[in-house]
Amino acid sequence: MNLRYFILLLFLFALGNGSAAAQTASPIMIVLNKADNDAVFVDPVAMKVLGKVAVGTGPHEVVFSEDGRLAFAVNYGAQTPGNSISVLDVAARKELRRVDLGPLMRPHGIQVIGGKAYFTAETNRAIARYDPEANKVDWIMGTGQNGSHMIAGSRDQRRFYTANIGSDTVTAFMFQNVPPAGSQIVQIPTGRQPEAIDMSPDGKEVWVGLNQDGGIDVIDTATNKVVRRVDLGGRPYRVRFTPDGKYVVNPTWPSNELIIVDAATKEIVKRIKMESVPFGIDFTRDGKYAFVTAIKPDLVYKVNLETGTIEGSVETGNQPDGIALFGM
């Protein structure tokens, strides 16, 4: 056999095995308990706690790396502002390291794109980027607005949006390439107290929840202007597109519902009553199920979005909030 051909066969065999291993890896979910200051590893199929690990004070949001090997939890703090990110080893179910962010205080919204973690530093009125390979913050840019709480970025890293609770604005960051290449900033006026935020999978719209106005402002990313108001009749704690971009699911107070909005028509198509006050949310890849953190009582629910029924729950600890799902 030709040596080059033999090496090619070995390479293809190894690649196939690697792909198979990635596809058959067990699904995993991580839930952050704000009051317990820990991250909880959960089997989302059996709805069973697998382990817990201590993180920083007041952890709020968590995301997986793109390969699922790591997870990043932002430690927002409580009475004293937090300034760290906990890097979690998913397989070992342990905190690999706690990244000291120095003067960057109150990290909150976080998103992994291109292998790096983009996050907000609320106190500093800024967004920043953490490089896990170099183990350092390699980029910072100010919003110039108050209460820059949540972040939504495009897959090509050319657009980022922050919801600024204290300024009633959304800041749009636009780049010619990966930041900091050729930047431009636009402040977009919105309704009162914008907090929850998400970008449509096609990058054409940004939806931002309005705490005081009880609804959502829809921003056209081509013009960076609000083009529609969606009235929910309550506060959308989170605003999240389903993976296919067809629906936007909103855990809403005080009605304690998941309000589902058709992304195209901007009309409410379903209301799912929850047994607790809903907080964080993430979806299975097919968008059929949502996993929702909730308090009073403190539980994580598995919700069938098609039937509108709760199919399971698990107790993870006190005040579960941030949640992320991988491999399901």
Portion of residues in beta strands equals: over 45%
* C-alpha end-to-end distance: 41 Å
Helix content: under 10%
Q: Overall pLDDT, averaged?
A: 93
Largest sheet data: 5 strands, antiparallel
Can you tell me the overall shape? Answer: globular
Can you tag this structure with a few keywords?
mainly beta; 5-stranded antiparallel β-sheet; globular; disordered N terminus
Task: Provide a brief overview of the structure.
Helices cover 7% and strands 55% of the residues. The protein is mainly beta and 328 residues long.
What is the secondary structure topology, with strand pairs?
Layout: H1 3-24, E1 28-33, E2 38-43, E3 48-54, E4 59-64, E5 70-77, E6 81-89, E7 94-100, E8 107-113, E9 116-121, E10 126-131, E11 136-142, E12 148-153, E13 159-164, E14 169-174, E15 184-189, E16 194-199, E17 205-210, E18 215-220, E19 225-231, E20 235-236, E21 240-241, E22 247-253, E23 257-262, E24 268-273, E25 277-283, E26 289-295, E27 299-304, E28 309-314, E29 320-326
Antiparallel strand pairs: 1-2, 1-29, 2-3, 4-5, 5-6, 6-7, 8-9, 9-10, 10-11, 12-13, 13-14, 14-15, 16-17, 17-18, 18-19, 20-22, 21-22, 22-23, 23-24, 25-26, 26-27, 27-28
